[in-house]
Design a protein that fits this description.
17 helices; transmembrane helix; Hydantoin permease; 445 residues
Length: 445
């Protein structure tokens, strides 16, 4: 029984970075930063990403590579007695639900990408970009077909496996994503009035510091690295034993930081140049950004590039969310991969239909006071992700033997016992404490 593997360390890093970057950085980070005051939020976010986030990322890497198993079996192999494997099940359920509504956003992006060829997105007939978004999302057929198309694109890549599918796609998509971001960033920074957007994004105003700023930044750090659902446990289980885990983790984090900076420098200067509000929430890229591009020379071309970037970012995250479910189901039997990928992918699509209809046929149907899309988002983002992150940190810190942790963490690395001691302190005490604070705030705050 031949288990698939990454063809190279760079392939693993790009795929892991693609999973981490995704909509968490490209879509969610700019609007959360806009809502939380810009520079101060971003400053705290970067610090937490490189400390608490990195420590948990390394914990998932250690668990995955040491066991060579995906979600469920990785926990069962370390702790065969007890119910610790439920952490993997929580991760699979969270990934299933997350992709069910995440793919709906992927469908919206697919629709906007297709419509970018006509130019009527940047310059709608009545000039109302928000109304155009409402018109699109209220059409169940258009968004339904786009939703299905997005899921089929995801399935077609994942069914080909780790090396020939996910790695190959990531090796092409991630460099393309950087190039497109660079083009958009340069164009944005050369606009008149762009400097104010740079200041808003990069200059911290510590007088605006509140508890909310810290808590939202920590939550964003976990979201931006795909932590808490065992995605990185699954990806690292295919990694070569001689690869340096700290080096791989820092590569993923630094790529995430770089993309976060590029995203901010591509979006906020353009918003300020055209006097657009930065605090428009999740609809920032669907209503405000098209309006910005509509005022640029060759705006349709730049908007096309922006939506292509969004599509690449969304797909690279979607690959990992399906893979975490497929890996435990096939248990190394690659001949089952194609069938299971299609089954899982179509089930996720079916689960996403109510979320897709939340803005049309089910717009008047509420669950706990929220439309179905928002209810699933709340369940995953506010409950399952923090819970999964907490349980993973506690499992690695207290159920894995200290000598095994040290050996796995430092294998292939030139780092020594001091680094291991600092990481162990982080994963045993600081990271769980931060997660518990965020978890209780999200639930009871």
């Amino acid at each position: 029984m031949q288990r698939d593997s990454w063809g190279s360390r760079i392939g693993f890093v790009l795929a892991a970075a693609g999973s981490a970057i995704g909509l968490g950085t490209v879509w969610r980070l700019p609007y959360v930063a806009g809502e939380q005051g810009g520079g101060l939020f971003f400053f705290i976010f970067i610090i937490l990403l490189m400390t608490v986030g990195t420590s948990l990322l390394l914990a998932e890497f250690v668990l995955g590579r040491s066991t060579k198993e995906g979600a469920i079996e990785a926990y069962r192999k370390i702790a065969p007695k007890g119910q610790w494997h439920l952490i993997g099940i929580i991760g699979m359920v969270a990934s299933f639900l997350l992709l069910s509504f995440y793919s709906v956003v992927g469908g919206w992006i697919t629709t906007y990408f297709v419509r970018s060829f006509t130019g009527n997105v940047t310059n709608p007939p009545d000039g109302d970009h928000a109304a155009l978004f409402e018109q699109i999302t209220s059409n169940p057929w258009e968004v339904g077909i786009a939703h299905l198309a997005f899921m089929i694109m995801t399935i077609l890549v994942v069914q080909m496996g780790i090396k020939k599918g996910i790695e190959k796609a990531s090796i092409y998509m991630m460099p393309a994503l950087f190039v497109i971001f660079l083009i958009l960033m340069v164009r944005s920074l050369t606009l008149d009035g762009a400097y104010e957007g740079v200041v808003y994004f990069l200059q911290p105003d510590f007088s605006a510091l509140t508890g909310d700023t810290f808590l939202f930044a920590l939550g964003q750090a976990f979201f931006s690295l795909s932590l808490g659902v065992s995605v990185m446990v699954t990806y690292s289980s295919y990694l070569d034993k001689n690869a340096s885990l700290p080096s791989s983790a820092w590569s993923v984090v630094l790529l995430s930081v770089l993309i976060a900076i590029m995203a901010g420098l591509a979006i906020f200067p353009a918003l300020y140049a055209f006097d657009m509000p930065p605090d428009q929430g999740p609809m920032l890229i669907f209503s405000v950004i098209p309006a910005v591009f509509g005022q640029l020379a060759f705006g349709e071309v730049f908007f096309f590039l922006f939506m292509l970037l969004m599509l690449f970012a969304t797909l690279t995250s979607a690959f990992s969310l399906i893979e975490i479910i497929v890996t435990p189901l096939i248990r190394g039997k690659e001949y089952l991969r194609k069938r299971m990928t299609w089954i899982v992918g179509l089930l996720i699509f079916a689960m996403g239909i109510p979320s897709n209809l939340s803005y049309s046929l089910l717009s008047d149907t509420y669950f706990f006071g929220m439309i179905f899309f928002d209810a699933v988002d709340y369940l995953v983002s506010n409950i399952l992700l923090p819970l999964g992150a907490l349980l993973i940190s506690l499992f690695v810190a207290y159920k894995m033997k200290k000598p095994d942790l040290r050996e796995e963490l430092l294998r292939g690395s030139k780092l020594g016992d001091r680094f291991f001691s600092i990481w162990l302190l982080m994963i045993r005490f600081i990271t769980p404490f931060c997660i518990i604070v965020v978890f209780f705030y999200l639930i009871f705050g």
